[in-house]
Every structure is written in structure tokens, then in C-alpha cells.
Design brief:
alpha+beta; Dipeptide-binding Protein, domain 3; D-Maltodextrin-Binding Protein, domain 2; four-stranded mixed β-sheet; Dipeptide-binding Protein, domain 1; five-stranded mixed β-sheet
Length: 555
């Protein structure tokens, strides 16, 4: 079977830290927490009020500005998801869209998908092989006019053709790709991807075509609200809920709304005060599970001061990641331990500590490195000539955890003579205006992973290259840091059928990523989802693909 699967079980040595309580260890080992109930125990109807800590403007998840948690929360209720992962990260075809999926066992890798002929877009057109072909053409990375968030896997496909009929898709690879089940999720219709203009703008501030258990009722971009209702033309098990109402706003405001009974579901994040506020809400609580998400500091390698790898290494060695993890996770039912891997979280099989010399807290060595790089202490801070070693740390408003992490880092860097200015910006344009274009020196946010480590993160660590316009094609490498050696190891890992060999190659790449100081991984972020107590099949899903049709209220 051509797949590089990862289990969500198997503790790392850090998971059993002596300071970790049995309750915290149990929380970290929990794969899923959704108050699971069979469909016959779910009420018909009801409104789920879903709070988002930012509101998307780009609803094409595959476009450069698209892959945010807010986009995912909405579009997975609306768009085709060809393959489903369970809580153990085992992946199977989604019968609502794919009746079967076969792959050749030797020679040229050929994947054959037999589509569900009942599946259709909201305009009435059937979902066919042409939608798959057009998505491959858009995402394969051959046309710079398509602003893609990633091309992982698609660039290995030689062709996508019709099989025996329009509902059979034959995908031929020119290079093997172990994680082929990760492709085409979510799937978009051909008319929204058949030109660069369509790809970049068809879903900009609008959602024109859908094919899921829900459909769009009302979208108000200025009010940051979106209402979905049952899709009467849905061919699968009908949605239990009558509607889902999304509202965008700063995280703290969303948690307050939950505590006041105005919101039924919101991701609390790793903030102890917000966690307690949600946990103590009347008629609600927090559902917790481990998952592939992690908190990290991204370092801008094109920043004037951080383009020097020696300065980046000094910054890394000045930051006590374990202290930040303990501070950030204090008060949560989660092990307060640092994470030392850019691909695998602490509770995943394959996890290894690859942080090496430059990932270890060593402020005295950092001072020596800064001295050697020409940055001499002059009063409180270091200077080279008349220039002060002064960095900006950009954080979104309304996220107390980000401010706490930035201020701790500010103190740590000051101890070695680096000045750090914390800059708070509005939460909605945080990614579009600051992270993606590189308007920062350092920043902090959470990466959301999947059951596929390479498909999830190759675009984050691949070395950016200049396109025909002379601009850097960063995909999701917002640090803009990489190397040919890292790319080669990730590419080799993509081809592996043997799980252990694939993991070994990924870990080799990770060691080099730590050496380059692309980013500082801080901790595995628990999935802390505040949920109305009466909701079922909603909460912390871990690796599981959410089933929106089964979400609802208990009878």
C-alpha cells in the first residue's frame, strides 16, 4: 500500500516527564473527545453557533491566503473530502465521493479512483474526473500565476485522465508518492480553477460552488458572519443540524461569548485563563485531545538582521522553549513539555528530539556567537557600528497567549543583548498582511497538521525559489529559509512505502531544519475545544476528519 501512515499513539520520552500528572498524561494520550453518539441518538434540527477567532476572506483552501483554521472549519462542511482519517490516522475513501481507490503495487504508480456518480456540485453538475484534472493542473506548480499554498504531491503527477467513464479517474505519477491519499482535499470545481484568475479570485470573499451536506445561506463579510443550512440535494446521510452559524471575532471575545451562552463551539487554544473561563461556563465545558497541531515561532530569514544564520542560531539558543511551554501550558490538563521536532508531535510514532546544539537553551554560547558575528554589547543592547540589534515580534490582537509568549521571549533576548519590540496587529489581517508577505522578524502561531506529515509540512520547509516575476514563491514557508539538502531528504521521504524509512528521512531533514533555525517549535498544542454540553460528535477530533452531517444535539 502506497501510504506513509502515522499513528497518533505511542508516547515520546518527554510525555512521561516526572512533573507531569497522571491526568495530564491521560489527556495527551486521548485520541478524540467529541461526545460520540450514533446518528439515531442525535436530534433532528437545531442551530450550532460556531465561533471563529478570525474570519477568512479567501475560501479557496489551496490558494496562498487560504489555509487557515477558519477556512478549514467552514469548507470541510461544504466541499468534497475524498478521503477520511479516523482517530488513529488510518485513511480510507469517503464513500460520499469515492466508491473505491486502487493503486498499482509495482512499476509506475497509477491510482484509480471510482467516483460516486450521485455526487454533484451545487450548480447541478456531476463531480467527474475533470475536476480532479483541473485541480492537478492548478496545483502542480508549473504556472506562477496560480498563487498556490502548496504543490506537494501534485508536482509528481504526470497526467490525470478519464478511465472507463467520466466517474473513473486515472492518476499516473512520474515519481512515486506515498501519501497519495492526501491529494485533492478539499476538491474544488473545474470552473474555479481552469485559469489563474479563477483560482485566485473565484472564492475571494464568496463561496460560489459547494458539494457537501451543507450549503451557504448567507455570507456577510463586513459583519464577519456566515450561515450554512442543510443541503436538500445532498446524496449522503442528511445533516442532523438544521444550520451552522459562524461568527468571526478575537479569541478572547469568542470565549466570553461562549461563557455567556452566545456561542456553542470555539477553539480555546492553549491559554489557561481562557480555558478556565470556558471550563467553568454554565452548560458547557472543554473537550480535550491530542492531535497533530503545534505552537511555534517563525523566524524571517529575509529580515535584514536575521538573514545571518549565526544570529538566528544565537536567537534560538537564547530562548528557553521549555520555560515558555511550561508558562503557556500552566493550568491546562496537558503535559508542560517542550517539543523538539518540526514534523512529528510528542505523542506521534516517529517523534525524535532533533533540536541539536542550536535548539538547546545556552545563553552564554549565544553571547559568544553574537560577539563573533560583530554584535558587541553597548549598554543594554548590542550594536554593530551604529546599528542596534533590534527585532520585531508581531502578534495578533485578542490572543493573550501570544502576548505572554512574546513578552517572555523579549525578556530572554534582552538577557543576551537583543532588543525585541512586540507589535500587536489586528487578528483578521494577521496572516494576509504580516505573516505571508514577511512583514515581521519573529512571530508566533499554531501549525495544524494532518495524518500526512510530508503533505502537511513540506510546503512549510521547502526552499523558496524565485518565479518568473522575480518574486519568491514561498508556498507556506513563511520563514523563507531552506536548503537543497532539506528538499532532497523530504523528496526522498515522499517516495517511501516503508514507514520506518520514511520517518528516518523526515527526521534527517528535521535535524537540518533545526540547524538552519527556520522556526522554533515550542510545544504540541492540545486541542482544547469549548463546547455546549448537549452537543454530540463535536469537539476535539485529533486526527479524525470531522463528519459535519453527524454533528448535532443529544436527544
Amino acid at each position: 500500500m502506497f501510504a506513509l501512515f502515522l499513528g497518533a499513539c505511542g508516547e515520546s520520552k518527554d510525555s512521561s516527564d516526572n512533573n507531569t500528572s497522571p491526568g495530564q498524561r491521560a489527556a495527551a494520550e486521548k485520541l478524540i473527545d467529541v461526545n460520540a453518539k450514533p446518528r439515531d441518538e442525535v436530534k433532528e434540527g437545531g442551530l450550532l453557533r460556531w465561533g471563529l477567532d478570525q474570519f477568512s476572506s479567501q475560501w479557496n483552501y489551496n490558494q496562498l491566503d487560504g489555509p487557515t483554521s477558519a477556512t478549514l472549519d467552514v469548507m470541510y462542511a461544504l466541499m468534497p473530502i475524498p478521503f477520511l482519517a479516523d482517530e488513529n490516522a488510518n485513511v480510507t475513501p469517503n464513500p460520499n465521493y469515492v466508491a473505491s481507490a486502487d493503486v498499482t503495487s509495482s512499476g509506475t504508480q497509477i491510482v484509480t479512483l471510482k467516483l460516486n456518480p450521485k455526487a454533484k456540485w451545487s450548480d447541478g453538475r456531476a463531480i467527474t474526473w475533470q475536476d480532479y484534472e483541473t485541480q492537478w493542473q492548478a496545483l502542480r506548480g508549473e504556472d506562477d500565476a496560480y498563487s498556490v499554498s502548496m504543490s506537494t504531491g501534485y508536482e509528481r503527477i504526470a497526467r490525470v485522465k478519464q478511465g472507463s467513464d467520466e466517474f473513473e479517474v486515472v492518476i499516473t505519477f512520474d515519481k512515486p508518492f506515498g501519501e497519495w491519499r492526501s491529494l485533492f482535499t478539499p476538491l474544488y470545481p473545474k470552473q474555479s480553477q481552469d485559469s489563474a484568475k479563477a483560482f485566485n479570485t473565484a472564492y475571494l470573499e464568496k463561496i460560489p460552488f459547494t458539494a457537501g451536506p451543507f450549503k451557504v445561506d448567507k455570507l456577510n463579510n463586513s459583519a464577519k458572519t456566515l450561515r450554512l443550512v442543510r443541503n436538500p440535494d445532498w446524496w449522503g446521510e442528511p445533516a442532523k443540524l438544521e444550520a451552522i452559524a459562524y461568527s468571526g471575532g478575537e479569541l478572547e471575545a469568542q470565549v466570553n461569548a461562549f461563557a455567556n451562552g452566545e456561542v456553542d463551539r470555539v477553539d480555546v487554544g492553549a491559554d489557561a485563563s481562557l480555558f478556565k473561563r470556558a471550563e467553568n461556563a454554565n452548560g458547557g465545558g472543554v473537550r480535550i485531545a491530542g492531535g497533530p497541531d503545534f505552537r511555534q515561532f517563525t523566524i524571517n530569514g529575509t529580515s535584514t538582521l536575521l538573514s545571518d544564520v549565526e544570529v538566528r542560531r544565537a536567537v534560538s539558543m537564547s530562548v528557553n522553549r521549555a520555560t515558555i511551554a511550561k508558562s503557556s501550558l500552566s493550568g491546562l490538563d496537558w503535559p508542560a513539555v517542550a517539543m523538539d521536532n518540526h514534523f512529528f508531535v510528542n505523542t506521534q510514532q516517529g517523534y525524535a528530539d532533533n533540536s541539536g546544539e542550536f535548539g538547546k537553551f545556552n545563553p552564554e554560547k549565544a553571547k559568544q556567537m553574537l560577539d563573533a558575528a560583530g554584535w558587541k554589547l553597548d549598554g543594554e543592547f548590542r550594536k554593530k557600528g551604529s546599528k542596534t540589534l533590534k527585532l520585531s515580534f508581531v502578534i495578533p490582537s485578542g490572543v493573550p497567549a501570544s502576548r505572554q509568549e512574546a513578552e517572555l521571549t523579549q525578556t530572554m533576548l534582552k538577557d543576551v543583548g537583543i532588543q525585541l519590540d512586540v507589535k500587536t496587529v489586528p487578528s483578521d489581517p494577521f496572516f494576509d498582511d504580516y505573516v505571508i508577505p514577511g512583514n515581521y522578524d519573529m512571530t508566533v502561531f499554531t501549525f495544524q497538521g494532518t495524518a500526512f506529515p510530508i503533505s502537511s509540512f513540506k510546503a512549510v520547509y521547502v526552499q523558496p525559489e524565485k518565479n518568473a516575476k522575480g518574486e519568491l514563491d514561498v508556498q507556506q514557508n513563511f520563514a523563507r529559509i531552506g536548503s537543497p539538502e532539506i528538499d532532497k531528504l523530504m523528496s526522498d521521504a515522499e517516495e517511501q512505502v516503508d514507514v520506518d524509512k520514511g520517518r528516518a528521512l523526515i527526521n534527517q531533514a528535521d535535524k537540518l531544519i533545526w540547524d538552519e533555525v527556520h522556526s522554533l517549535v515550542v510545544f504540541q498544542r492540545p486541542q482544547n475545544i469549548a463546547v455546549n454540553d448537549t452537543l454530540v460528535n463535536v469537539g476535539a477530533h485529533g486526527f479524525e476528519t470531522r463528519n459535519y452531517a453527524d454533528m448535532g444535539f443529544a436527544k
